[in-house]
Structure formats: structure tokens, C-alpha cells
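Dear support,

I submitted the protein below through the web form. The confirmation email said the job was done, but the results page showed an empty box. After a refresh the structure appeared. I'm attaching both so you can tell me whether what I see now is the final result or a partial one.
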Amino acid sequence: MSESYYATGKRKTAIARVWLKPGQGNVLVNKTYAVEDYFGAGDSRKKIEKPLILTDTLSRFDVMATVKGGGKSAQAEAMRHGISRALLDVDGEFRLTLKRAGLLTRDPRTKERKKYGQKGARARFQFSKR
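What the results page shows now:
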């Protein structure tokens, strides 16, 4: 079990490349930052650790992730997706647990494009009869 496990996670325009290595549960973002330093105080750490907690592997692996694109929340969710996919390489038995929690599904919601002749994606310019 000395090897590392790799997976890619995505959410909106954020992409996270995640490596799981045997360790004590440290999470490193972009090779330099701890989770609290990069994402700040909030729910990001809970989001990121959720797949590890569900599978009881929090203290077994160190997580190293490279994130780019999107905002902080989307990056955290991309990391969560990547960790979940990497855990499948660790043990296929985790699939049912992670699938039931909805962690293996890539969230497809993205920003809808603005249409020509309109103010936004769905908002129209104000209609004037006279």
C-alpha cells in the first residue's frame, strides 16, 4: 500500500487533480497551502473530508491536490469529487457508500450562456408598447 492513487474531480469550471498517499490525514492544496489557509474558515474542510469520513479512511491517507479555475466553493467540491474517485481505486467496496451519498456524480450545473438580443441568459430587455 505504498503507492499513490490519482483521480480528477470537476465542478463548474473548477478542476482538481487529486493524489491520495498513505499518511495521517493531512490535506495539502496547490503544493503549499493547508486547507484552512487556502479556503479560509467555513464548510470547505467538511466538504473535502466527507468522502474520507464516510469510508473511514480519514487517518489513512494524505491528500495532495492541485486546483485551478472556478471559485473557492467549486474548487472544494471538485476536490471532493476527485477524492471520491481516487478512493474507488483504493477499494472498489467504497462504491456503494460513495454513490449513495452522491459523491461520484459530477454536478453538471454550469452558467447558462447569454443569448443575443436579450439582456442575459433568460432576462429580456424591457418591452415598450409606445
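Response: this is the final, complete result; the empty box was a page-load delay. The mean pLDDT is 93.
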